[in-house]
Every structure is written in C-alpha cells, then in structure tokens.
Amino acid sequence: MTVVSEMLKTHPKGIGDLDEAALKNCILACLECVYSCTACADACLSEETVAELRDCIQTNLDCADVCDATAKVLSRHPGATSTELLMSLLQACRAMCHACAVECEKHGDMHLHCEVCAKTCRRCVEACDELLAAL
Amino acid sequence: MTVVSEMLKTHPKGIGDLDEAALKNCILACLECVYSCTACADACLSEETVAELRDCIQTNLDCADVCDATAKVLSRHPGATSTELLMSLLQACRAMCHACAVECEKHGDMHLHCEVCAKTCRRCVEACDELLAAL
Amino acid sequence: MTVVSEMLKTHPKGIGDLDEAALKNCILACLECVYSCTACADACLSEETVAELRDCIQTNLDCADVCDATAKVLSRHPGATSTELLMSLLQACRAMCHACAVECEKHGDMHLHCEVCAKTCRRCVEACDELLAAL
Amino acid sequence: MTVVSEMLKTHPKGIGDLDEAALKNCILACLECVYSCTACADACLSEETVAELRDCIQTNLDCADVCDATAKVLSRHPGATSTELLMSLLQACRAMCHACAVECEKHGDMHLHCEVCAKTCRRCVEACDELLAAL
C-alpha cells in the first residue's frame, strides 16, 4: 500500500497543515480495519461456536462500516471538510475500533482471526489518536 | 421503502428500548442522503460552473460516506453496539449532514439538485437529533 | 424516497437515452436491498438457529455490498460509464440478488425477515432485468 | 497490509480450492484501487482544469465503488458465494478498472495522481484476470 504515500504527494493543493505521517497512518489503519473486520466477521460465522460470537460478528461489521467511511473522508483533500467535522468522525471511528478490539480480545485465545483483528483495531485506535492530536 | 418498517418488526430480539419511529426515520433519512449526496455531487460535476462547486462536491461525497456507515450500523440490531457508540456516530453524521446542507444551500438558487439535496440533508439532521434525543 | 424522482430531473445533462422509470426503479430496488440484506443478516445472527443460517448471512452481506455499489454507479449520470460497463455491473448485481432471494426463500417459512428480504431481492432482480432490457 | 496474508490463514474452513496468492493479490489490489480512485477523484477536483477532468472523476468514483464491493465479497470465505457469482463480479470489477486505467492514462502526463491511479487500476485488472483464471 505504498500507493497512499505516493498519492498524498500528488494532490495539487497538498494536505495543508495536516501531519502527513499521521494522516497516512490513519488512512492505512482504517483500510486494514475494513478488511480485517470483514474477514473476522466471516471467520467467526464459520466457527462451530458461532452462537457465542454474535456480538463479535456484529461489532466487526459495524467497525468495518465506520472505518470505511473514515478512510474515504481522509482520502479526500481536507479542504472543505473542517477540522471539527474530521474530529467528530475520528472520535466515532476511534470509539468503534476500541469497542471492536475489546470484543475481539475476548476470543483471541480461542480464535486466531480475533487476535489478528484485535491488533488491527488497536493500531487504528492509536492512529486515530495520533491524527486527532495532530489536528 | 416500506421495507424498513417491515424489517424492524421481524427482528427476533426486537429493537429493545429504542424508539421505533425515530429509528425508522433516521435509517430512511440516512439512505436518502446517501442517494441525494451521490447524485448531487455528480450533477454539480456536470455544471458549467463546476470550478465553483468543488467544496459542494467534496462535502457531498463525504456526507454520502458517513450517512452510508450510519445507515448500516442503524440497520443492525443495536444489541452489541452500545448507546455511547451510537451517539458518537450519530453526532458525526449529524455534523456532516449539517455542513452539507449549509454548503448546498449556497447554491440552491442556482441549482435545483443542490436545493433538493439541502432539504434531504436537513431532514437527516432532524432525524439524527430525534434519535439522539430518544437514546 | 421521492427524492430519486426529484433528483433525476435536476441533472444538468439529463439522463440521456436511459429509460427514466427503469433507472429510478433500479436505484430504489438496489437501495432497498442494501437495507433489507443488512437487516436480514443481523436478524439471522440473532436467531437461535444461527448455525443453520450461515450461508444466508454471508449471501446477505455479499448482496448488500454489490447492491450498494450498483446503486451508487446508477446514481451518477451515465455519461462516462459506458453501456457495456453498466451491463456488466447490472448482471453481477442481478446474479447476486437472485442467489440471495433463493437462499432467503429457504428460510422464509421460518423467519419473516427472510421472507421480506427474499421479496426485496426478487424486486431487484426484476428491476435489473428491466434496466438491462432498456439499455 | 500483511494483515491479508495473516487473516487468510486463520479462517476455520480455509479458502477451499481457491488459489491463495491470487486471492490475496486481488483483495489487496481492490483495496488499493478504492483508495487511489477516491484520492485521484479528489485531486482531479482540485486541478485548475477540473472541467476537463469530469469523466476522470466520475470513472474514479464508479471504480472505487465497484472495487469496494469486490474487496468485501473476496474478504469473505467463498463458501456460499458460488464460483459463477464471483466470476460475474470479478468481470464487472475488471471492466471498471480497465475503463478507469484508460481514462487516467489520458491525463497521466499532466497529473501525477492520474499516473499513479492508472497503475493501481492496471494492477487490479491483472489481479482480477489472475483470480478469474484460477477459479
């Protein structure tokens, strides 16, 4: 995904006052979460113990949707989108990733996909925090 | 879209303490915004004065993405998703719809698609407010 | 969702040779499917017999994603998107909705959400067929 | 994005007869396209010559939506989704990425973001072809 670094340098207006590293990391972390939450929900669904993984599946699906929207908003030049709007969305994304990490960690010992997904969500929490701090 | 009312009654666990009318209205308003913001961005892009409509197009695209995620989270039974998470997402959605309504209203006299889209965004702001108040 | 009819009339370039009624119906049917498939997947997940509904949940999620993309592409003025591209996407969408209808119909006697969702998917199959015939 | 390789090994049912390398490459290529097409559309929108880039913006947005759906369907265990459905979606995705690559290449000499995006789209065409060949 070196394409994120490449594209960030090609925008005719640049990225303004935004911290390039923090922005890049947050876009990447969100894209990773979209994938890992979608894949973890599906893997949970195939487990024999699916009935015990209902909350995990639902939280995964919610987290994938919110990270998806956040990745797309961050992929646009933050000219029109005010800092306030960005903060509000990043806070919602951070909260959802935190909830998903907590849920996946409950099953991390039993299911490797939950362990992997929890780590991806933790990375996204951190990336949101760092971008929020840099705004 | 009577399907929203129908589906809300079929969930095996019901919708818990949620206000059914407020939930239904918010799902519908978000789905409408996804469509109208996508269509308005595209109509703006076809206007001769596209260069003056850049902020409108970008805000439309951002708004469509955030409403999309909100509609999907609301379409799920709010069992695992805590009230706090839902409030955070609804606040981000409300803020984005408000920003998009304000932007579209600047061009509503010139472009009917902006007028229609502004009204859809205003309805979504209200629907988010009502659901937030009912949580 | 009268907003679809309204917006279709506001585009500066019109909708070209496309059949307006067929286009409108297909956009609406896809939006309905995004909602009903997302909601049906979640309702299935809450059923006691969730283990028997795995295929239904997965097909619902896939169908929601493909209808989502189709609704968005159709929401744009079909100027740049060639007829060939549109046909290819509509065929994929039609096939996915057909598969989802067949899967949901297996459980329609037991679960009302599957019965409702099957009907929504059938309507989308028809709407895709009508738009394909009109292209 | 090593998370894709990691997750593919954690699914309780494995990936069946699918070619793991081809599947991984196609998921990654689709995720890259979602990002690069979203970012290229936004960069085009900021160019002084935005009026000449309308088709490029629209094709970018369409391509992002179709790659998004394809990435999500591929992120799920292809148990319920038949080979035929997967082929239909991959063909639609391949066609859209090809159209977007052709469009972006028209502006690649002028705009680096179009050059980068064209390459991402070309990689996705190849990745779809390889996965289609492996099905």
Description:
Four copies of one chain form a homotetramer. Chain A contains five helices and no strands. Chain A is an all-alpha fold and 135 residues long. Chain A has one domain (20-134): Up-down Bundle (Substrate Binding Domain Of Dnak, Chain:A, Domain 2), CATH 1.20.1270.360. In chain A, helix 2 runs antiparallel to helix 3 (54-75) and helix 4 runs antiparallel to helix 5. Chain A is elongated. The mean pLDDT of chain A is 94. The A-D interface holds A 1, 3-4, 6-13, 27-28, 31-32, 34-36, 38-40, 42-43, 45-48, 64, 68, 71-72, 75-77, 79, 111-113, 116-117, 120 and D 1, 3-4, 6-13, 27-28, 31-32, 34-36, 38-40, 42-43, 45-48, 64, 68, 71-72, 75-77, 79, 111-113, 116-117, 120.
List keywords for this structure.
mainly alpha, homotetramer, 76% helix, 135 residues, elongated, Substrate Binding Domain Of Dnak, Chain:A, Domain 2
Write the layout of secondary structure elements.
The structure is a homotetramer of 135-residue chains.
Chain A (H helix, E strand, L loop, with lengths): L2 H6 L11 H27 L7 H22 L7 H24 L5 H23 L1
